[in-house]
Amino acid sequence: MRSTKFIHTLWYGEHPVSFLLIPLAWIYQIAIIIRRLAYTSGIIPVKRLGIPVIVVGNITVGGSGKTPLVIWLANYLKNKGYRPGIVSRGYGGKASHWPQQVRPDSDPLMVGDEPVIISRRTACPVAVGGPNRVSAAEGLIRINQCDIIISDDGLQHLALFRDLEIALVDSELRFGNKRCLPAGPLREPVRRLETVDIVVSNGKAGHGEFSMKYIPGKLFKVNDPGNTMTLDDYRNRNVHAVAGIGHPPRFFRLLRNNGIKTVEHAFPDHYIYNKDDLRFDDDLPVLMTEKDAVKCRYIADDKCWFLSIDATMDEIFQHRLANLLKEITDGSKTA
């Protein structure tokens, strides 16, 4: 926990250690440039799948709202008559071989927490490829006859050709100190956003960005999802709030904004919980995110609930997306 707080201070403040790491950040940037040139020049081959590929990703380390947007995008494409498939790395998955098909009942410890949520919330074919998304995508096309692929967190996975790039920006953290790893949180320099097709901010949007908003849904009992409540049921009540996501304060604030009094427990992103993490010396309810809940179903007691959240995109974004999809289908959009 302390290391997580130190890294946050290092990257999102002006910690002196960050300045000492700037030479390493320069080396990292040079490596990025060489790697990208290797792909764009054809030295390293880029795989074309023969169907459209949409990449959803970000340029910073950590979560920025990619999973809710991927879910929204998959459901949007289904409503437009597509047969989308989703590929992901399966971060944190312990499977012994790749790729892995993901089902709603897959073990998140094997395939990662986010792919399981995507499978449950979209009813679309999902596959995780570990370091090789190409083989995962080819499997979805071969087995499920998908006619469009969404690559979750695939902005830096250059081996897979993409027709459309959507980059997510955290509206609160933005780009921190604007330095690349390890001096800052950037996987790629901020100017990378000038080359993507759409930039989405998960909250207040900056210039040239589209805003993604979260709509809280029902609360589900973690060990019995058929049992539901609403946020209003907990209004003016004290609860333990648990979050192991990219930016836990956003979840805590959402609860407080709905009149819930929170005792906050922040964990690192993709944290693997044990029973003791969810046991407190009182009888207060425990509210957590859906991402946490997929890993806690078999260790949670009756006091544990998770909040479902949906992303929503406005009509201007949908119009822009529809036009880009039409260009891809018509063959008028160049790589």
Give short descriptive properties of this protein.
13-stranded mixed β-sheet; 10 helices; globular; alpha/beta; 23% strand
CATH architecture of the largest domain: 3-Layer(aba) Sandwich
SS-derived structural category = alpha/beta
N-to-C order of helices and strands: HHHEHEEHHEHEEEEEEHEEHEH
**Largest sheet data:** 13 strands, mixed
CATH fold group of the largest domain:
Rossmann fold
What is the share of helical residues?
A: 25-40%
The number of distinct helices, counting runs of at least 4 residues, comes to 10
Q: Estimate nothing, just give the exact number of structural domains.
A: 2
Q: What would you report as the Rg, rounded to the nearest angstrom?
A: 20 Å
Parts with pLDDT < 50 across at least 5 consecutive residues: none
Q: What's the rounded overall pLDDT mean?
A: 93
Q: What is the total tally of β strands?
A: 13
Cα(first) to Cα(last) distance is 42 Å
CATH class of the largest domain: Alpha Beta
* Overall 3D form: globular
Strand fraction: 15-25%
